[in-house]
Amino acid sequence: MNKRNNNRTRRMVALMLLMTLIFFDAFSQKISTSPTRLNFKVSPGGSQRAIITVTNNADKRHDFNVDFGDFDASREGKSKFLEKGVLPRSCADWLSASPSLFSLEPGEAQRVELTMDVPQDSAAFIARWAVAYIQLAEERRGQQEGNDGLIINLNQSYRFGVYVFQTPPNATYAKGELIDFKYDNDQLKLRLRNLGETFLKCNSYAELTNLQTGEVSRLKARNFTVLPASNRDVSFIIPKSYKPGTYSVLGVLDYGNRDEIEAAEIEITIPPKSNE
């Protein structure tokens, strides 16, 4: 009996989570922020301003506030949002917004001025990053009862993140390195790391040469940013249309340096496709 109730509970929680995600996706189309990332280049002791535009395309008035936090990125490039000042390279405390509180009627837009004030000390000589949150000031709270009497409280709060990057003018050394290149189950994986002082804006691709026919093809390139002192995994799926056989595969990392392009080469075998 307990097992049955636990299964019902899990199903209800999964259903409510799905409903919340669908509702958030629909709502996020009604509120927009532009741009989604800001790049500052401020010297120690200096200041710089940038503009974020928030637009309310919903059919009702909404109140907003602006706040700041930290973010990190996983090897797969997924962002993890953290409290302000958690990361050693945070610059969230250097940011301010004007206005930080505002209301928008349907169809209205608001220009928000973000200011980066960099201190005159050693902390200002390395690249740092943060996230600016544009979030609804109101909070919606709902309640729904499941068939088995389970009460689920929904606490729905919506926010939109703008990535903020601060690179001091003295931080110019850019260096990316490929540290591994593997193939497994129709997937190529490039592993790389940022050894430089800047944010690496990378373009990476894989080129396959069929060693039986000599035919050369290139998989769709991937564009991404790697934070300083961070690692990143980039995956490429080999389409099922590729013929079985032996291939030489060149994995390429282009991070904008005309004189240096990192590359690695492996040989793989694509097995015959199953008849199932």
Give an account of the 3D structure.
The chain is mainly beta and 276 residues long. It folds into two domains: 2-13 and 29-166, Immunoglobulins (Immunoglobulin-like), CATH 2.60.40; 176-270, Sandwich (Immunoglobulin-like), CATH 2.60.40.10. Helix content is 10%, strand content 51%. It has one helix at residues 2-28; strands spanning 31-34, 37-40, 47-56, 62-73, 79-82, 95-98, 101-104, 109-117, 128-136, 140-145, 151-156, 159-166, 176-184, 187-194, 200-210, 216-218, 222-226, 231-237, 245-254, 262-270. The strands form five sheets. Strands 2, 4, 5, 7, 9 and 12 form a six-stranded mixed sheet that branches. Strands 15, 16, 17, 19 and 20 form a five-stranded antiparallel sheet that branches. The chain starts with a helix and ends in a 6-residue tail after the last strand. Residues 13-28 and 139-156 have low confidence and may be disordered.
